[in-house]
Amino acid sequence: MxxxxxxxxxxxxxxxxxxxSNRELFKVIKYGGTRxxxxxxxxxxxxxxxxxxxxxxxxxxxxxxxSSSDGKSGKK
Length: 76
Ligand code: HEM
Known about the structure:
Blueprint: H1 14-17, H2 22-31, H3 51-63
The site of protoporphyrin IX containing FE has 18 residues, from helix 2 and helix 3.
């Protein structure tokens, strides 16, 4: 798989994810990286997902968070 030429954040690291409100996650997912002044390499998922789908993605992504020190996936 071709990787984008910028680092892709690890969405399982709760220290990183806690910086974002659900509203901010919604925006970056729907409108893509450029919306937040980031690169275009995160595509705007609003092209193919409804707002309701995006809410489901947020719920799913939140379920992946773990502390970077505990080494386990899933909710604490
Ligand atoms: C599950 C859906 C996704 C979520 C919740 C998500 C979330 C995020 C977040 C929170 C950031 C950090 C933005 C910031 O630092 O302000 C980010 C950046 C990024 N995402 Fe995503 N993302 C998703 C899907 C994707 C997909 C499908 C791709 C690529 C095909 C992608 C590529 C990137 C890249 C390249 C960046 C870094 C942009 C930069 O630093 O310029 N993301 N994403």
